[in-house]
Amino acid sequence: MSDGRSKGESKDREDVSCAMPMQGVSTRTSVLLFPAMREGRFYKFWVYIIASRTGTLYIGMTGFIDTRIFQHKSGEIDGFTKKYKCNRLVYYEQYDDVYVAKRRERQLKGWRREKKIALIEKMNPRWEDLAENWGRELLFRGQSMKKKA
To answer: How many angstroms separate the CA atoms of 39 and 65, rounded?
Structure first.
């Protein structure tokens, strides 16, 4: 080729694609060479399990774990979690890739309850609310809990 590319090479070197023929149709999926950013920070995605006090489990995926857990705790999200009072974060995993996170969420949702419980208890054997103190003021050793006037 006259522009310095070899046959089949993309003109834009940052455009890495893979072609997967499906029954005579070629589909192209772009792959990012660098992680995407949001508000000056790299995107992160979380797959999480929240539970009710009675043991009902809910599995979800989000890009804003702190906001989403607060929404569950305050009952802002109508549906399953509000109906069954699922508001205690008992397990989470972090991912850089949204597609990997979605795939993991679907995988966990397909598991039997016993397997989900084993996963939770491996990280959180006492089923403590991992987000119980999120958003609260942190105190250091020797610091008074009383407000100063």
So the answer is: 15
- Structure pTM? 0.67
Question: Using CA atoms, how far apart are residues 73 and 130, in angstroms rounded to an integer?
Answer: 12
Q: Which of 50, 52, 51 is nearest to 60 (CA)?
A: 50
Report the relative pairing of strands 37-38 and 41-42 from DSSP bridges: antiparallel
Torsion, CA 78, CA 122, CA 110, CA 89, rounded to 10: 10
Count the alpha carbons within 13 Å of 126 in the hemisphere toward its beta carbon.
Answer: 3
Q: How far apart are CA 129 and CA 114, in angstroms?
A: 20
CATH 3.40.1440.10 fits 41-123, yes or no: yes
pLDDT digits (tens, 9 = 90+) for 60-107: 999 999 999 999 999 998 999 999 999 999 999 999 999 999 999 999
> DSSP string covering 15-51, please?
-EEEEEEETTEEEEEEE-SS--EETTEE--EEEEEEE
The length of the chain is: 149
